Amino acid sequence: MVGSVIAISGPELEGATEPNLSAEATSSSAKASNNPEPHDAVLNPIDRALEDIGFGRFQIMMMAICGMAWFVDSVEAGGLAYIYVTLDAEWRTTTGDWGLLQSVKSLCSVAGALGFGMAADKFGRRPAFLGALAATSLAGMASAASQDFYSLLVLRSLTNVGAGGILPVSISLLAEHLPPSSRESCMVLMQIFFTCGHVLAVVLAMLLPTSDGGWRMFLIALALPTALLMFAWPLIPESPSYLQMSGQETKAKDALRNICLRNKGGAEALVFSEDLQHSAQDQKADQSATGVARLFSTRRLAVHTCLFGLLWALTNSASDFGNWITEIGHEHGIQSHQVEGFMIVFKVVGVAAFITSAVFARGGRGPLILRGGYLAATLAAAAASAVVTLGGSRVLLAVSMAVLFIPYDVVWSLIYATTASSFDSHCRASALAVATCFSRAAATVVPLITGKLLEHHEFFALSFWTLAWAAATCVACLISFSVPEQNVKEVKDLSAP
To answer: Which residue windows are transmembrane per the record (predicted)?
Structure first.
């Protein structure tokens, strides 16, 4: 099969040593035919073109833009926990109130994920991304004006409608602009933005005053990066995979030319092979098998989708411990700033952990590392439970809880990448939205349970989280982290000239 990118020309390259993409593409295709890699057999024409163009400045820009989704998810997952104690004193709230807030937020995230995810597969990644971004930033800013717990509940719930949708859409948008050979490693590195969001929340909680409305400045500061990203809307492109899938052949080619222009610096024209043209025509003729309808069109694909949803639900349930770090520390007489200091140190260690994971995830080893991360998290959670049961010191408890964040970071960085790689572009955004819905549905119920468990004793909550990590480990071992065979056949058919 001849590569999708056949030649490059441009006045800036005249008289210079011009890279022969035609030779490179033909050579790589010849190598693939003699010694095929597992992923080559399922590359559609757009992925083949992205692979031939390669990784460059355009992908770095997209990682920076889409990274805001991980930032927002981090803030919404655990950032608010750092003002709970302050508002307990100001509004006389309890752990039960914060459990209610977490549950309602999660329910709104389900609606946002499903709504924006389906919109991304139907109307495009770009408009869905911008819509979710606008909802998140505007409602997040408004929540700083809350006058009581219930107004905060309403405004943070609206924030989560946008936040719930921004992550699955941005994962699809980023994955569909990355060369397949770099996709999993780059997606793992996006966890840096998740860590940045968490560290920013901790630093702001330490620096801002706990009285005189300091928590309002805290909420404004957390929403500010998302609001500023709105001004970058002209830079946010549409996915070439979506354009090809919707039969917009000319726009898909223009999108690929733009990527090549940014990466190669001066390329004006690309010549595409006929497989892209045939594929776009086939897609235009068949618009039915996309989105959620595609996910549940066959029993095999439906089971595949539900298993991923269950994995996300269990992972979110197990990760609920992050919402209660300050409350658990407070019960053991640990000052909030001490807990925050521990968190910063171990989040930095976590960065090293998932950068290492990104390196080892290359070559299809992501699922293996993911399963190892689940097992490590199970053992770390069990160790924290043992410390509580045996009456260990406060320092030992704080360290055991903080250590749990290392496999936690590894797991969450890889689950995004492996899920995105396990579905094709026809239903990728919807698949991520469904997985997010499972996750948020669990998060709607779990805080209510753990909030009540913590009112009795933290051992019960720690045991619950340990069991959730163990169950997630079992499910991860059952899942086949690959595009189902039926989808592979369809992709092959689309790639045939």
So the answer is: 60-85, 127-145, 157-175, 187-208, 214-236, 339-361, 368-389, 395-417, 429-450, 462-483
